[in-house]
Design brief:
This protein has 21 helices and 7 strands. With 419 residues, the chain is α/β, with parallel strands linked by helices. The protein has a 5-stranded parallel β-sheet, with helices on both faces. A two-stranded parallel ribbon has the order 6-7. The longest helix has 20 residues.
Length: 419
């Protein structure tokens, strides 16, 4: 019998759980399917988020024949065979899983056939396409980002599997489903595999005990207080933010001992470095990346010490969320004023026509003309008084706050009055 994840795989877009930002009404994949005009795209997301399922559904919904390859074991020879098939049939959809594993020459072999429309490329990758997919191929395929399923979506997925005609047809305790949904960490395949094993261990009934046994020691242990995975990561984050080094180390140790992915923890710690330490200590982000690289190099258990060292540093570092707040304000300003005209003197003028139109004219180069540089406007008209970044009084920002205030006073006093 096929695994549960395969048996309950969605047959229509409406059955897909999660990824509503792509599959909901009016969203990109839904619009593409309704118009039956399938364009090349790459699905980027972590394992178990539905990349293969969505690719299959899109090809089926567009009533197009699809050939599936995995870049793990396919090569240029396989691409040539698919091209031959496509030429005989007048076109094909090529689903290429793990597309990031193709090297440059292999990816280049796809280019002319994707560009001509002979092949409609549906790629899937767990790695950032910006780094792993050639720019030329990326320009011919839209990139869609898939997110890990949240706990609510994962629980809906498990309930759907229980009620599915080809599913388990088993009874489950609510606490067991909650535990499985939390332990899956956004991975639908992991959640369904654990559900299937829990049903087998519970002899047709999924209990909290059988769910815990199914998860085993390879997943996070949950303590008697019922604090689950996201409660623990929240406690770690808030302890670092609150400068409580002992609590932060304790929660880190609980997660490591429970089997949490150290690289996941490294990513979360990097987020803490930019969100909560920020510019109060600009070294924090560099140390976060160094800790991640150290773990990559050493592995467990030696590399875990680098994460512990980072947690200590972040917890004791001065704190500032000024860059976090400034970026939120900047995004809001960009959304509110997406078309505000850039001042002419700041524009690029690579051609004679643009120079005649005034592009770049009157620009004051700071190193040659500091006074003129302060007098010229930098923001679009109407946004001259926009203030996004405010330095805090901690760490590095305490030292630069006075300089920031001096610079802003100088801009205000040097700005010529409006005529």
């Amino acid at each position: 019998m096929a695994p549960l994840a395969e048996r309950v795989r969605p047959r229509t877009l409406d059955e897909v759980v999660g990824q509503e930002h792509l599959t909901g009404p009016g969203k990109p994949l839904r619009r593409m399917l309704e118009g039956r005009r399938l364009a090349s795209f790459i699905l980027w997301g972590p394992p178990g988020t539905g990349k293969t399922t969505l690719a299959r559904l899109m090809a089926q919904g567009a009533q197009l024949e699809m050939v599936a390859l995995s870049a793990v074991n396919a090569g240029v020879k396989d691409i040539k065979e698919v091209v031959t098939q496509a030429q005989a049939k007048g076109g094909l959809v090529l689903f290429l899983d793990e597309i990031h594993r193709f090297n440059k020459s292999q990816q280049d072999a796809l280019l002319p056939h994707v560009e001509s429309g002979l092949l409609t490329l549906l790629g899937a990758t767990t790695e950032n396409p910006s780094f792993e997919v050639n720019p030329a191929l990326r320009s011919r395929a839209r990139v869609y980002v898939l997110h890990p399923l949240d706990e609510e979506a994962t629980q809906r997925l498990l309930e759907r599997a229980l009620a599915h005609p080809e599913g388990l047809q088993a009874q489950a305790e609510p606490e067991a489903l909650k535990l499985l949904a939390q332990a899956a960490m956004g991975d639908a395949r992991r959640a369904l595999s654990a559900l299937e094993l829990a049903a087998s261990l519970g002899e047709g009934r999924i209990t909290l005990a059988s769910a815990q046994e199914a998860l085993g020691s390879g997943t996070l242990h949950f303590d008697k207080g019922g604090e689950y995975f996201y409660d623990l990561i929240s406690a770690l984050h808030k302890s670092v933010r609150g400068n409580h080094v002992d609590a932060a180390l304790y929660y880190l140790a609980r997660m490591i001992e429970g089997g949490a992915d150290p690289l996941y923890l490294a990513r979360r710690l990097a987020r803490m470095a930019v969100e909560d330490v920020g510019l109060a200590d600009p070294h924090a982000l560099r140390l976060a990346m160094a800790a991640k690289d150290t773990y990559d190099f050493l592995g467990s258990p030696e590399g875990e010490l680098a994460l512990a060292e980072l947690v200590i540093y972040l917890a004791l570092a001065p704190k500032s969320n000024s860059s976090y707040l400034a970026w939120q304000k900047a995004q809001n300003a960009a959304r509110a004023h997406p078309d505000a005209p850039i001042p002419l003197h700041l524009r690029n003028a690579p051609t004679a026509l643009l120079q005649r139109l005034g592009y770049g004219r009157g620009y004051a180069y700071y190193h040659d003309d500091p006074e003129g540089s302060f007098a010229q406007p930098y923001l679009p008209e109407g946004l001259e008084n926009l203030t996004l970044y405010e330095a805090t009084g901690e760490g590095w920002e305490e030292r630069v706050r006075e300089r920031l205030e001096r610079l802003r006073r100088r801009f205000r006093s040097a700005r010529p009055p409006k005529s």
